[in-house]
Amino acid sequence: MRQPRVIMEVGDDGVAVITISNPPVNALALTIFDGLKEKYAEAMRRDDVKAVVLTGDAGKFSGGFDINVFERLHRTGDSSILPETSISVAVNVIEDGKKPTVSALQGLALGGGLELALASHARIAAPNTLLGLPELTLGVIPGSGGTQRLPRLIGLPKALELMLFSKPITSEEGNDLGLVDAVVPSNELLKASRQWALDIIERRKPWIRSLHRIDKLGSLPEVVDIIKTARQQANQSFINVPQHQACLDVIEEGIIHGGYHGILKESKVFKDLIFTDASKGLVHAFFSQRATSKVPNVSDIGLKPRKILKVAIIGGGLMGSGIATALILSDIYVILKEINSEYLLKGIKAIEGNVRGLVSRKRLAKVKAEKALLMVKGTLDYSDFKDVDMVIEAVVEHIPLKQKIFADIEKACPPHCILASNTSTIDLNVIGEKTKSQDRIIGAHFFSPAHVMPLLEIVRTEKTSAQVILDLMNVGKIIKKVPVVVGNCTGFAVNRAFFPYSQSAHLLLHLGVDIFRIDQLISNFGLPFGPFQLQDVAGYGVAVATTKIFHTSFSDRTFQSPLVGLLLKNGRNGKNNGKGYYIYEKGSKPKPDPSVLPMIEESRRTINIMPGGKPISVTDEEIIQMILFPVVNEACRVLDEGVVVRASDLDTASILGMSFPSYRGGIIFWADTIGADIIYKSLQKWSGLYGNFFRPSRYLEERATRGIPLSAPAATSPAAKARL
Ligand code: NAD
Q1: How many angstroms separate the CA atoms of 399 and 118, rounded?
Q2: What pTM, to 2 d.p., does this model score?
Q3: Over 70: is that where the pLDDT of 721 sits?
Q4: Residues 249, 527: Cα–Cα separation, whole Å
Q5: What is the pLDDT of residue 717?
Q6: Is 666 in contact with 532 (CB distance < 8 Å)?
Q7: Residues known to be catalytic
Q8: Ligand 1 mean position to 346 CA, how many Å?
Q9: Hey, which of 396, 448, 536 would you mutate to test ligand 1's pocket, going by the most ligand atoms within 8 Å of its Cβ?
Q10: HSE of 543 in the Cβ direction (CA atoms, 13 Å)?
Q11: Is 10 helix (H, G, I), strand (E, B) or coil?
């Protein structure tokens, strides 16, 4: 791999072009800052240099500060490796340099990359360049003056939107806002930037130091008001993390006391934030997601993904229509098969609804939407299956039906066609039992709503070929999902690890804990819904079906709550029919429904598990632990059986499939912050008090007694080896 470097070329026109080169995105590695200082010193010294154009190699300006440095800081705790660049590079070298700098932006200018550009005296960009300050997604704030210069260039409200919500914009939008001075065709970028730099020297264009500008900031009372509102919004949208409020503090400091004060505070706060749990969790989540694309014996054996141009989907219900939507939005042709024309029409209408919904929420251009809708064709038989590259079956969770469909498609499709199922629980070997095509059978497990949720769990059996796995991973990436390859077992990785989530909530409820207290605590912890509200949203039928399946496979540790059956008997089915644990009214937050309380009492009486007939007394922290430690326990079994390639895959899957808070790093990372020993001892205590549901797994016990983190690689058992 080529070393990161900074190159300088001086033209006859007296402009030095300084280029950041660190493929693939010109990340700002530590040596890049040294290189910049060195080249700038030379440029300032040389008499034949009048001005500087700063740019990036190979069509990209810079993707920002090198995130590997954060990882090193977290691992070592050694803050001395972090260079001070805000004053020494952005202010002293670029902004206060005695010769002007124009940044020539193309491809992307993100994070620290954009901050260097903000410190330049003008910015010229190629069309469609992505500009943004996404630092808050890594638990920190912009650290090279971004919090000070961005509001000064584009005004406070827009700057807050870009930073607090980590929302990137294009160079065209940047031009309208004043972030970019001109957008020019890519092939003219360098020429136009050089000319702009010379124009500054010749005083034909202004020499602007953005840190000194105040014209776009508004009056002090206005600023105070905007920041106050932003604080309230951030408080609601971003719980349990410090960086949003810290970012607002720093911006406020700079506006009230001046840009340079702001820069000093920004540097200090940036360094403090790096070592917070939130930053550690978010950086871990970032690297975990990146690692999922490396699958031993699949991605590293020289295979190339085959083209998947046409996909048939069987079943146009909730999942089938969502999957079809995701495919057509990425230009993959879809054949949708249903059992009759009424259901087919319903499926097509659902796809239309999904696509038009994106348009009305301004997430998709109308032209693109119309084009996508031309990519789907409905059918009631298999005649259109003769040239499809992949089938995704998404019919109801019924074994004989799925077996029959797989036997049929084996005959109807070409021999190269991938035969995938969206089953959420059924063993894929069982589904493919009546075929001879085991090597091309695979699970394509999407999460609902399939066109929105980012996770694609790819389930391989012992017989699925590496080529088929790679092809599906590639399709996943094309349709903008994060594919995570897992092994075949009941519930696969995510549903398997999280099946105790709602069961422990029901167990606690029957031990006398208040239902709404449980939900409130879990959402305070950071999951979007508590376990009972989640059941309301999914519908109680799902809870009945999945409990049955998990009870069959893991009867030693399932808690069968009589409550759901009781609710269904009383005509309640959650949010779907407006009768759940909560009252759902349009435009307002769900409210606890007191009318479920008598049913809860009846359910408690039926199984009568409260010790001495009295509700147990538990702290808020214990409630969270009693719900999430059983999940960690099952996740340990998932690791032990080698269902995932690495522990961090389960972190990614828990974040993207279950919305586990990313700032906690994922289920295993979070568990390791608590410690295997504490989790083990707690589960052991509860299993003594409340039964086998809490019994610690062998893996957890071993890790706890030997003092090894749960995330450390598992000693692969023969079963795990066979699976992967
Ligand atoms: P659904 O009931 O909404 O849709 C199933 C559709 O399949 C129906 O429209 C039905 O008419 C159609 N169908 C049945 N037999 C067919 C056949 N022979 N040919 C063509 N179409 C046929 O079900 P769903 O919620 O979309 O679930 C589908 C699958 O996805 C199940 O295996 C389920 O376990 C899995 N899944 C569901 C979710 C979820 O949240 N609902 C999440 C992940 C996976």
Answers
A1: 59
A2: 0.94
A3: no
A4: 27
A5: 56
A6: no
A7: 115, 135
A8: 13
A9: 396
A10: 28
A11: strand
